[in-house]
Amino acid sequence: MSSATSRPVMYGDGSRWLLLHADCLALLPELPENSVEAIVTDPPYGIGFAGEAWDGGSLTDAETFQRWTTSWATEALRVLKPGGWLAAFGNPRTTHRLVAGVEDAGFEVRDQLLWLYANGVPKSHHRADGLGSALKPAYEPVLLARKPIAGTLDASLTAHGTGALQIDAARVPRRDGGQGFWPANVALTHGPHCRQGRCQPDCPVALVDAEPRPGREISRLFYTPKASRGEREAGCEALALREVPIYPRGGGSMRLVRNTHPTVKPLALMRWITRLLCPPGGTVLDPFAGSGSTGAACALEGRRFIGIERDERYVPVACARIEHWSGEAGK
């Protein structure tokens, strides 16, 4: 990006949020070093998801995927302040390559968050003899890594405000109003068809509560976000309706939507991760902004946001969603 004509198109108000239409591998080297407190992102998984070009091609080769991960993570490390945190979503099949690539870039691997959900569908044909080739997906791993601190943790907090997790900000509230539960490295999500007081049969929240001590609500020990059905489309009312396949049903089944991104993350989960990793008033970077869920979470949590998105299909969706939730934050 050496010429004025190659400057990325920028959206946002520049103070609260900024979205840049660009390839992060080209743009990250342009960002100043030690400039953001946290990175929260959902990069491609390298599994050829739903035939999407951004998740296929050479990325489906394991070694290539790991080298590509190291490429973007190296620049992400440079942009983070010392002690800054990275949360990167992954896929069970390729998360070992994600972790190795991030570690090769110089990050400290600190933990892995497991996000459990109920709406996964097996990607395997159910044979008449009762056999299949895959399990039902029910979780996504989220890598938690940290840029090495400069000196002691106290020195890093004093100089940069980074290095420690925001434990109290991310505690799970208690029903009795006491101090909330310490945040765990497991997050549960209600199923999309759960209702107040009634969960769908495979909801992980209900299953955890059913055993081993019925009625004790063991799920309260974990964060339990729940996305509303209209959440992914909020703010997109002015965008055109487009046909997208109902994945993984196939067979030509289509639906009309405005937010066409196939892997939208629930805002409650993204808000919780944002509170956990980024100090109040800090800046979160997302090199793979997609439909803008990280940016929307930052708007609602009072953090500044910088997003980068290469695919022109998702840029207007991300802008609409972030602008919408920025307005909701002031209400």
Structure write-up:
Residues 1-5 have low confidence and may be disordered. This protein is of the alpha/beta class. It is built from 8 helices and 11 strands. Helix 7 packs parallel to helix 8 (315-329). Helix 7 links the parallel strand 10 and strand 11 (304-309). It is globular. The protein has a 9-stranded mixed β-sheet with strand order 1-2-11-10-3-4-6-5-7, sandwiched between helices. A two-stranded antiparallel ribbon has the order 8-9. It has one domain (8-326): 3-Layer(aba) Sandwich (Rossmann fold).
Tell me the layout of helices and strands.
Blueprint: E1 9-11, E2 17-21, H1 24-27, E3 36-41, H2 62-79, E4 80-89, H3 95-104, E5 108-116, E6 139-146, H4 153-160, E7 186-188, H5 204-210, E8 242-245, E9 254-257, H6 267-277, E10 283-286, H7 293-301, E11 304-309, H8 315-329
Parallel strand pairs: 2-11, 3-4, 3-10, 5-7, 10-11
Antiparallel strand pairs: 1-2, 4-6, 5-6, 8-9
Helix pairs in contact: 2-3, 6-7, 7-8
Enumerate the strands of the largest sheet in spatial order, edge to edge or round the barrel: 1-2-11-10-3-4-6-5-7
User: What is the CATH topology?
Assistant: Rossmann fold
- Domain tally: 1
Number of helices: 8
How far apart the termini lie comes to 39 Å
The average pLDDT value, as a whole number, equals 88
Identify the CATH architecture.
3-Layer(aba) Sandwich
- Percent of residues in helices comes to 10-25%
Q: What assembly state would you assign to the polypeptide chains in this entry?
A: single chain
Q: What would you report as the Rg, rounded to the nearest angstrom?
A: 20 Å
Indicate the overall shape: globular
**What's the CATH class label?**
Alpha Beta
Order of helices and strands: EEHEHEHEEHEHEEHEHEH
Give the name of the CATH superfamily. Answer: Vaccinia Virus protein VP39
Strand residue content: 15-25%
Class inferred from helices and paired strands:
alpha/beta
Give a count of the beta strands, DSSP E runs of length 2 or more: 11
Low-confidence runs (pLDDT<50, min 5 residues)?
1-5
Main beta sheet = 9 strands, mixed
